[in-house]
Design brief:
heterodimer; A: alpha/beta; 8 strands; about 15% strand; B: alpha/beta; nine-stranded mixed sheet; two-stranded antiparallel ribbon; about 45% helix; about 25% strand; extended; Eukaryotic translation initiation factor 3 subunit F (chain B); translation initiation factor activity (chain B); JAMM/MPN+_dom (chain B); translation initiation factor binding (chain B); initiation factor (chain B)
């Protein structure tokens, strides 16, 4: 048993993907260096403060209408370096219809107006959405981000995963798009060269505003705050039992259905990724074929020119823009492959998290099993 | 109808014992509205949304404040606002209907009028009061229904009668609540810390039980048969596996987990390799 563990550790360090120690079930931008990458530029340094009520509202809305995926709007204040989220309201589920678009906008305006009347902060600071097993990185998310970013200086997206509440985990993530990614998206330029220039890799698309310990050095943090009145009420609402439902869920060993679904999603994503890879391969093959053809044509031209020079005629130009050989082949955009890669990384991290948790419990069981049998024995002796 | 001699004021208790279940989110919402109320208002009034469960309990799930004007003898409620918010909320969740209304502060004269208004909207509305001024020294949340007082056959007045209230949280909310209880939380705890906390609590419980059994055996505490039976049931619930079988079981599952870990780490390596090949490498 011990031997098996050692060899696995070696594998982990070889892949560079795992540092022994804490393994958060939420994905982190860069696990290789163990640090969270903070976005460049001052506008991205921000602290996020939540009111407890907002989080409870989000949880309630996502859970009530699960498994349907829902969205809602976040309202709050953007002051200095602090982004405070003080209220939120849910969006009705939208059908894919043209006229319903206007209705949705009306609903939003109506809600904002009504909330204004009761002195709720009226500024949109972002939106939230629910997800299933962490599969939220889609093109639509990025589009929505860009839409919001145009109007609001700083906006944040909260992703909540209600399916993981069964495990006693609060699966809440706060995301922002990184600045470099936004620039590239605006110019719609995802060619290889540009990406190399900006040193952008797939982890850099989203910036997660972390709420975890390893990032206590970074200025980006999520804080939760409550007004004094609410804190007073909370003591009233505190459960009396020393052990809560949360604990029962955490100690549950049967996470296999969840792991199964995670691995299923992973496999599907891998299929998508391999399709994207094939596209790239196709492109590169075409490119190299075109190059070869160009070279051949160039040789012919040069030979022709040499012959012409001997005959004393004007040499022909070495380039011919009308020749289809010289038409540049468009490079496929890498945005999709980035998103898919991100998704896969997410699933991997989640699987990692569950597995490590189960490992911990299993190992402690093993140790406890031996001591428990001793306890059994002692009890028996006592009763005698 | 007069009756000779003494007239007895009767009140008919509600035939079915209604009780209410409130989601803490409602309480927080009310507190938030109270904190944000306009300066001249002393209290906040609003609508309660929810549903009636099949066993008669009223489940209060959501709420919103309604602007109102109050003077010594008049209460004016913004009915349009109330209707607008209701339709908006029902667009999101059509199952939520009006079940009553709330106010901060105690029950006062004006409450009867408002209650009457809400009785027109729904049958037997619940009136929830949240004492934000802590008059009794601790936070008190009470729920009332209106009960008729009749003298003989004449309906004289209505009385607010308190009904039992249940403040319980759905599991997912409980998790959020546990995590976010302190006034300012510096970070959302990750899995491992939560696990640690749970283990500690479990250990504390086991210690308690152990001490109890010890005390009973030594004769320090009078034994309680019910607890004893409960304990023996619990211990008997452990599956009786031989140590070898148990070890094998645990080892097998551990190996499965390690396999998955390996798989996911390899996938990650593959991803970074693929990315290098796609982006960082220069082909031509």
């Amino acid at each position: 048993m011990a031997l098996l563990l050692c060899s696995c550790n070696k594998v982990f360090s070889a892949s560079g993907g795992y540092r022994g120690g804490h393994a958060a079930a939420q994905s982190r931008p860069d696990r290789r260096t163990g640090l969270c990458r903070v976005g460049m530029g001052d506008s991205s340094k921000c602290r996020l403060i939540f009111i407890l009520m907002v989080i409870l509202k989000i949880i309630k809305h996502c859970k009530e209408l699960s498994p349907a995926l829902v969205t809602g709007q976040l309202l709050g204040l953007d002051v200095g370096s602090v982004l405070e989220v003080t209220n939120c309201f849910p969006f009705p589920i939208r059908e894919e219809d043209e006229e319903v678009e206007a209705e949705g906008a009306n609903y939003q305006l109506e809600m904002m107006r009504c909330l204004r009347e009761v002195n709720v902060d009226n500024n949109t600071v972002g939106w939230y959405q629910s997800t299933l097993f962490g599969s939220f990185q889609t093109g639509e998310l990025i589009e929505t981000f860009m839409n919001y970013q145009e109007n609001i200086r700083r906006c944040v997206c909260i992703i909540y995963d209600p399916s993981r509440a069964n495990q006693g985990v609060l699966a809440l993530k706060a995301l922002k798009l990184s600045d470099t990614f936004m620039e590239l998206y605006r110019t719609n330029n995802f060619k290889g060269e540009k990406l190399r220039e900006k040193n952008l890799s797939f982890v850099d698309i989203f910036e997660e505003i972390p709420g975890c310990e390893a990032c206590s050095l970074s200025p980006n943090r999520i804080k939760v705050s409550n007004s004094a009145l609410i804190s007073a009420f909370m003591t009233e609402l505190e459960a009396d039992t020393p052990v809560t439902q949360c604990d029962y869920d955490r100690l549950q060993l049967s996470t296999s259905p969840i792991l199964e679904r995670n691995v299923e999603f992973l496999i599907e994503c891998m299929d998508d990724l391999s399709m994207e890879q094939q596209k790239f391969q196709f492109y590169y093959r075409n490119l190299s074929r075109q190059e070869a053809q160009k070279q051949a044509w160039l040789q012919k031209r040069r030979a022709e020119n040499a012959a012409r020079k001997n005959a004393g005629e004007e040499p022909l130009p070495e380039e011919d823009p009308t020749n289809p050989l010289f038409k540049p082949i468009p490079e496929p955009s890498r945005l999709d492959s980035f998103l898919i890669t991100n998704q896969i990384a997410n699933y991997c991290n989640q699987i990692n998290g569950y597995s490590i948790k189960l490992l911990q419990v299993g190992l402690s069981l093993l140790v406890a099993g031996q001591s428990f049998s001793r306890l059994y024995l002692m009890k028996a002796l006592h009763e005698k | 109808m007069g009756s000779s001699g003494q007239t007895v004021l009767q009140y008919v208790p509600s035939p079915a014992s209604v009780s209410a279940k409130v989601h803490p989110l409602v309480i927080f919402n009310i507190c938030d509205c109270y904190v944000r109320r306009p300066d001249q208002a002393e209290r906040v009034i609003g609508t309660l949304l929810g549903s009636v469960l099949p066993d008669g309990t009223v489940d209060i799930r959501n709420s919103y404040a309604v602007p109102h004007n109050e003077s010594s003898d008049q209460v004016a409620l913004d009915i349009d606002y109330h209707q607008n918010m209701l339709t908006s909320h029902q667009k999101v969740n059509p199952k939520e209907a009006i079940v009553g209304w709330f106010s901060t502060g105690g029950v006062i004269g004006g409450s009867a009028l408002i209650h009457e208004f809400y009785s027109r909207e729904v049958n037997n509305p619940i009136h929830l009061t949240v004492d934000t001024e802590f008059r009794t020294g601790n936070a008190s949340i009470k729920a009332f229904v209106s009960v008729g007082l009749s003298l003989g056959d004449q309906q004289l007045a209505a009385q607010f009668q308190e009904i039992p209230l249940d403040l319980r949280m759905v599991e997912a909310e409980q998790i959020g609540f546990d995590v976010l209880k302190p006034t300012i939380v510096d970070k959302l705890p990750n899995d491992l810390e939560g696990m640690e906390a749970t283990m500690e609590r479990l250990l504390a419980l086991i210690d308690d039980v152990y001490k109890y059994v010890d005390d009973v055996v030594e004769g320090r505490i009078a034994p309680d048969n019910k607890i004893g039976r409960f304990l023996s049931d619990t211990v008997a619930a452990l599956p009786k596996l031989s140590p070898n079988a148990f070890d094998k079981l645990v080892n097998d599952s551990l190996q499965d987990q390690l396999l998955l870990l390996y798989l996911s780490s390899i996938t990650r390596t593959q991803l970074s390799l693929a990315e290098k090949l796609n982006t960082a490498a220069q082909i031509l």
